Amino acid sequence: MIHSIGYLGPFAPNFDDLHKITIQYTKHDGTLGNCDEQSDNASGIFFGYLEKPNRNFFAVRAQYGEVLVDLANPVELNPRRHMDGKRPGPKPPQFGDECAANLLRDMISANASQADALSAIAANTGLTVAT
Question: What is the domain range of residue 42?
């Protein structure tokens, strides 16, 4: 299965209102930008990330089908572990099951109260996240 991760904007003006972000995010200057969408050839989990200063990226969302989880505690992205060595860029990076499972595991580890919903996403995509 092919998974991907899309840009949801800069961290500071968007994290507290993450649950409101669907198609647009707030830029630092207050204007709106368009969120990345999952590409047609990626049918797996669509993760979302926010950017902190100095190009530090944090996963903040996981979505598969109707299940959408906005994380209480962001997870810093490790390109090798989470995105098959790819870096965030103008097109949402795509990656395989191993990296998607790693990212879900790290999300669960940082967000125990959201473990059931994140584990449901894993189960619905056939991924194993038990440690």
Answer: 3-124
Residue 82: both structure tokens together: 């989470």
Structural domain includes residue 130: no
Does residue 11 lie within any of the structural domains?
Answer: yes
Tens digits of per-residue pLDDT, 53-103? 999 999 999 999 999 999 999 999 999 999 999 999 889 999 999 999 999
Q: Distance between CA 105 and CA 32 in Å, rounded?
A: 32
Q: Where are the beta strands (DSSP E) in 77-115?
A: 94-95
Assigned domain for 91 exists: yes
The residue length of the chain stands at 131
Pairing of strands 56-64, 94-95: unpaired
Q: Count of domains in the chain?
A: 1
The verdict on residue 74 lying in a domain is: yes
Taken in order 29, 60, 113, 120, the sign of the CA dihedral is: positive
pLDDT over 70 (residue 131): no
Give the whole-angstrom CA distance, residue 111 versus residue 106: 8
Tokens 């994290």, residue located: 15
